[in-house]
Write a sequence for this structure.
């Protein structure tokens, strides 16, 4: 007869309220499906269609970020991927960091990294300006009109 080992994470008594583990599990499945669609769409547009990788330069990125569609597309990829990865890291920390203090420190570090990267990435997506006002003409790309 085969026996199944006890799980590493001890069972907890049922709690009242929101089951965050269940919603985290559901989020991982749904965000994973959406990320596959977003990432393959991103790869198709950037690498397969057009001139391939040779077309990707500053002007290409500037052209993409000039339209709200691509800003939202990249924003969804950024947020979903970082939260998906952060949730995955949280699960690994729960599985392997048994010391309560180490567990909390690692989870706070992952949360801090995810928040900082989401904020910085979102700022880049929405504040990207290839032709900033007041810049010297020598510092601007060739497609920017001299101001």
């Amino acid at each position: 007869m085969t026996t199944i080992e006890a799980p590493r994470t001890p069972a907890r008594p049922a709690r009242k309220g929101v089951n965050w583990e269940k919603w985290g599990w559901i989020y991982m499945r749904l965000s994973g499906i959406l990320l596959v669609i977003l990432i393959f769409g991103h790869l198709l547009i950037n690498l397969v269609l057009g001139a391939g990788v040779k077309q990707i330069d500053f002007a290409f990125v500037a052209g993409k970020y000039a339209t709200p569609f691509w800003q939202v597309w990249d924003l969804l990829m950024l947020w979903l991927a970082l939260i998906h990865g952060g949730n995955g890291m949280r699960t690994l920390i729960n599985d392997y960091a048994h010391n309560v203090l180490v567990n909390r420190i690692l989870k706070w570090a992952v949360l801090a990294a995810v928040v900082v990267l989401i904020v910085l990435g979102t700022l880049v997506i929405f504040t990207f300006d290839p032709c900033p006002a007041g810049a010297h003409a020598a510092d601007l790309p060739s497609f920017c009109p001299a101001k």
The chain has one domain: 26-131. The two ends are 81 Å apart (CA to CA). Residues 8 and 96 are 8 Å apart (CA to CA). Residues 20-48 form the longest helix (29 residues).
